[in-house]
Amino acid sequence: MSQTVDSRLEALGVTLPTPAAPAANYVPFVKTGNQLFISGQLPMNADGIQHVGKVGADISVDGGQAAAKLCAINLLAQARAATGDLEKVRLVKLVGFVNSTPDFTEQPKVINGASDFMVEVLGDKGCHARSAVSAGSLPFGVAVEIEAIFEVE
């Protein structure tokens, strides 16, 4: 891919938001050495919290994927705030939490909403290790929360 991260975001019609402030006693990211740890991001946009409910009951897999993509957009906003330049980052790992019913088993499909977006935007630097797990509930009742680890040049 010869395009820049910014040009791929623009082609997708995505404008990164102002990064969200922490909702409790933590920081949005920690950079140590060449590693960047980004705290869990929620599906928020300029209108506030989106995608509230349980996947498998109130929200479909497609809706969960949309929530995961929004979390990924917020992860990139935090990464830009931490580094100043998304060309400097490589995604190492995503950890995705899905607020789902006890019998729901498609957490990997839901978190693909974030994984697919990261690869689309970052190219080879977006290929990553990942966990996708179920949660009985998440902050503010959101359907998905995702945290990330990046390597920084």
Quick structural summary:
The chain has 153 residues and is of the alpha+beta class. It is 30% helix and 27% strand.
Kindly describe this structure.
With 153 residues, the protein is an alpha+beta fold. The chain has one domain: 60s Ribosomal Protein L30, Chain: A, CATH 3.30.1330. 30% of the residues lie in helices and 27% in strands. It has three helices and seven strands, in the order αββββαβαββ. It has a five-stranded mixed beta sheet. A two-stranded antiparallel sheet has the order 3-4. Strand 5, helix 3 and strand 6 form a beta-alpha-beta unit. The longest helix is centred in the middle third of the chain and has 23 residues. The mean pLDDT is 96.
Produce the secondary structure layout.
Blueprint: H1 5-11, E1 29-32, E2 35-41, E3 44-45, E4 48-49, H2 61-83, E5 89-99, H3 107-122, E6 129-135, E7 144-152
Parallel strand pairs: 5-6
Antiparallel strand pairs: 1-2, 2-7, 3-4, 5-7
Question: In terms of per-residue confidence, which ranges show pLDDT below 50 for 5 or more consecutive residues?
Answer: none
Alpha-carbon Rg, integer: 15 Å
N-to-C CA distance: 18 Å
Main sheet makeup:
5 strands, mixed
Q: What is the name of the CATH superfamily?
A: RutC-like
What is the name of the CATH architecture?
2-Layer Sandwich
Annotation field: number of helices: 3
- Strand order, largest beta sheet: 1-2-7-5-6
The rough form would be described as: globular
Number of distinct beta strands: 7
The CATH class name reads Alpha Beta
CATH topology name: 60s Ribosomal Protein L30, Chain: A
Helix content: 25-40%
Summing up helix and strand content along with how strands pair, one would put the structural category as alpha+beta
- Supply the number of structural domains: 1
Share of β-strand residues: 25-35%
Order of helices and strands: HEEEEHEHEE
Q: What does the average pLDDT come to?
A: 96
